UniProtKB/TrEMBL annotation:
It comes from the Eukaryota. Keywords: Repeat, TPR repeat. The keyword Repeat applies. This is Uncharacterized protein. It comes from Cryptococcus wingfieldii CBS 7118. InterPro entries: TPR-like_helical_dom_sf, TPR_2, TPR_rpt. It holds the Pfam family TPR_2. SUPFAM superfamilies: TPR-like.
Length: 214
């Protein structure tokens, strides 16, 4: 069983036009909770000549201010207006986060997918993975797909490795899960050590069953 915690809407992150550096945050559970950040637009050379892009960025900033005022519904409206004016990865990403917390899971998933289509980055993939894990019924195959994509974009992120390992373990893919738990432990995730021991024991048990009585 997986647990979920909410992200902190008061913390703002910046998303650049190129794939950004992964946003690090502490996750206490096996599968990532939703990203503890929203994205604000980075200055773009084209914005000075594209009035629609300038307007879209201004609307994102208005959404960010609404979040700082704890007004999630107003933030959602600003982000929707932003992508209506000009689609941007940060506009869709922030809209997705709002939609999910306003209980519109289908809208959130669609918006994260649109964000990724414009600019893949790890947080959008991990958020999608979380949404699929906490779906009813859970969709572990889709969670694995998106966590794998997140790890490809941020291969040195031990938290993503840990979370992917947890889903793989639950799906019975123990060899790959063990490798990723070991990667997470080497990256400083102390709790991964227990998972390494547990999965190693499971693999030994499976091997013993295959060999049969001696």
């Amino acid at each position: 069983m997986f647990s979920r915690t909410l992200f902190n809407t008061s913390r703002i992150a910046r998303v650049a036009r190129t794939p950004p550096r992964p946003i690090a945050f502490t996750r206490t559970h096996a599968v990532p909770s939703f990203s503890r950040s929203y994205a604000t637009p980075s200055p773009s050379p084209s914005s000075s000549t594209d009035p629609n892009l300038t307007k879209a960025q201004e609307l994102i900033e208005s959404g960010t201010r609404a979040l700082e005022d704890q007004d999630l519904s107003a933030a959602r409206e600003f982000y929707q207006q932003s992508v209506d004016v000009r689609e941007t990865p940060e506009g869709w990403y922030n809209l997705a986060n709002c939609e999910y917390h306003l209980q519109n899971k289908e809208g959130a998933i669609a918006a994260w997918e649109k964000s990724i289509a414009l600019q893949p980055f790890p947080d959008a993939h991990t958020n999608l993975a979380s949404a699929y894990i906490f779906d009813k019924p859970p969709k572990p195959a889709l969670a694995i797909k998106h966590l794998t994509a997140a790890l490809a974009l941020a291969p040195e992120d031990p938290e993503i490795a840990f979370n992917l390992a947890a889903v793989l373990e639950s799906a019975g893919k123990l060899d790959t899960a063990l490798t990723l738990y070991q990667k997470a432990e080497a990256g400083g995730i102390d709790r991964a050590a227990q998972n390494v021991r547990n999965v190693s024991a499971k693999l030994l048990g499976e091997k013993a069953k295959q060999q049969g009585p001696q």
